[in-house]
Design a protein that fits this description.
The protein has three helices and no strands. The protein is mainly α.
Length: 77
C-alpha cells in the first residue's frame, strides 16, 4: 500500500495481472507519491495524491505526470 503497511489475506487481494515491468512502474509511482505526501499538505493536494495511489493502471497520464512532477519540485524547495 502506498501510504502504509497492512496485513491482508491473499484471498482478499485482486489481481490486475500486471507484467513485471508494469509492477515496477507501479512501485515507482507509489514511491514518488510517498516521498511527497505529508499531513502538512493542503487537503486538496493530499486527496490528489491519494487518488493517484488508487489508480488501477501502471502509468500516469501526461497531466498526472506533470502535476506530480510539479509537487515533487515544490516539496524539494
Amino acid at each position: 500500500m502506498w501510504d502504509g503497511e497492512y496485513a491482508i489475506g491473499l484471498q482478499h487481494l485482486k489481481s490486475y495481472n500486471y507484467l513485471p515491468a508494469e509492477c515496477e512502474q507501479m512501485r515507482e509511482i507509489c514511491n514518488r507519491i510517498s516521498r511527497v505526501y505529508s499531513s502538512g499538505l493542503e487537503e486538496s493536494v493530499q486527496r490528489f495524491l491519494e487518488s493517484l495511489g488508487k489508480v488501477n493502471r501502471s502509468y500516469l497520464t501526461a497531466l498526472e505526470e506533470k502535476v506530480l512532477s510539479l509537487l515533487e519540485a515544490e516539496i524539494a524547495n
